[in-house]
Design brief:
Distance between the termini: 89 Å
Largest sheet: 8 strands, mixed
Strand content: 15-25%
Radius of gyration: 29 Å
Bound molecules: flavin-adenine dinucleotide
Strand order of the largest sheet: 2-1-3-4-6-5-7-8
Length: 548
Amino acid sequence: MPKQAGSSTPGESQLGAEVEDQLRAAFKALPHDMPVFLFTDGKSKDPLGAAAKQMMRLFRNLSDRIKVKEYDMDHPEARKWNVTGAPTFLFAPERYSIRYMGTPFGEEGRTFLGALILIGSGTGSLSEQSRKVLKKIDSPRDVKVFVSPTCPYCPEQAINAIRAAIENPEFISLEIIDIQANPELADKYGAFSVPQTFANDVLIAQGAQTEELFLLSLEKMEQQNVFIPESDAAVLDVDLVIVGGGPAGLTAGIYAVRSGLRTAVVEAGQLGGQVAATPIVENYPGFTRVPGKTLVDILVSHALEYTEIFQGEKVLEIIRGDPLEVRTTRRKFLTRAVILATGAEYKKLGVPGEARLAGRGVSYCATCDGPLFKGKKVIVVGGGNSAATEALYLHNIGVAVTMVHRRDTFRAQEHLTRNVLGNNIPVFWDTEVKEIRGKERVSEVELFNGKTGRTQTVPTDGVFIAVGYSPTVELALKAGVEITPDGFIKHDSHHRTNIPGIYSAGDVEGGYKQIVTAMSQGTEAALSVFEDLKTPYWLSEAVVKAAG
Ligand SMILES: Cc1cc2nc3c(=O)[nH]c(=O)nc-3n(C[C@H](O)[C@H](O)[C@H](O)COP(=O)(O)OP(=O)(O)OC[C@H]3O[C@@H](n4cnc5c(N)ncnc54)[C@H](O)[C@@H]3O)c2cc1C
């Protein structure tokens, strides 16, 4: 039986006649040359280098379009291309920034062959959906994929990265690093399992991903586990549009589609809403402790079994009529009903320096930004559940936290308060932040103690603001939906608002602001929509009115 190209030992001269013929034919059909520069360390008689040379010659014999140049490490070309270890392969370095560090033995033969074929074809052959994501990458990504010759999943991830580097050479550079040939690099990055992918030194994926998830992780700079295809349709006709992809909106989506309604969930930002920014959830029945992000992945995957989700588009306007017209930043929906599940947003302190230094040390999300402050000092402002949760999270990941609270006791739940005090997190009681200062980044805060009247300046690297949330009601207001004196959407027990066809669910309604309550409100709202569309209450009300 002929051997697979990838599993052959580089030391052997033959791949098997049949495989060689197939490869010759495949290479011949490719429109572009495949230049490969190989750098080896001639002095040390490195066996890996010798094997790499043999392998290269083997491939070169299969096609004169594979243009091989071999250099020793002390050759000026090594400096020119910034080659730091041997053996290193550079693929078409004049066109792309793709390098393989090591000798592609075993499974890695597939990566090597994949690189040659993709370079010869001159395209990454990405799917349409992947291309859409790739287009959004508009700043450099220095990608490192750690692989090993015995890992059967590694070529999949390495080839994802090669495709991206070929399709976007302006911003994507790639190093595929064999951990066995480069143990010190693997050690430096803590890459003790493969494949592991880093972009700009941030871990963006553990394990092999689908092409779309890889690109999404590369775009977002963090591991993504759910990919939602984008739709190009300019106008969509549905029964129900759910505004907001938090727990309320996603749950409403599941129930609505199960009731037979053609449904679209539209989410402007992160799916999962506030849960996406919650470090650990400990009160979601069925899970003793679950990271918010994991819960979101589970919930989104479940919702996608039913409903279409349109992520990254904001609903701008709801125009009343029959049908209702829902305008987003990308398209228009014509719909019979709308559920507003727009949740809540972080409240601002409104002090000088807060807006200017937002994203430069001022943060509203410990899970998102906390890891950047490891080993540094931060202030957490607030005394409720969120402030206590965020302070504990930061403390647990090695950030030196001090809390600032304007009262003399916390409003947080008892066990959170106990945890904060038990962990000896210092607290400035009766104290308010008056100003956040810093040139380029936060460097200090000015604090005012309302009891003593004393003002003091405290140096800090960051300020995490957790002083509560405001319901997101701009869209509702614009549509003419009535709001309660507290600022929440006014609704009846069926989650109907004052506008026929427009409903509400979740934190935007007020009441207990919890994941399970938001889900239950989403469920009720979806079932109300279903029943009302079957028997529109507004028509019967109109009939009663007309009858006098
Ligand atoms: C730090 C933190 C910790 C928490 N911990 C817990 C906990 O441990 N347990 C618990 O039960 N609850 C917890 N909560 C509360 C819980 O997360 C919320 O009650 C729940 O997420 C509310 O769900 P929702 O769907 O109503 O709103 P949200 O989760 O706020 O979702 C609303 C979504 O609507 C989107 N949206 C708004 N306007 C538009 C628009 N115009 N177009 C498109 N999309 C729009 C937003 O982007 C958002 O994603 C926590 C909250 C925070 C912030």
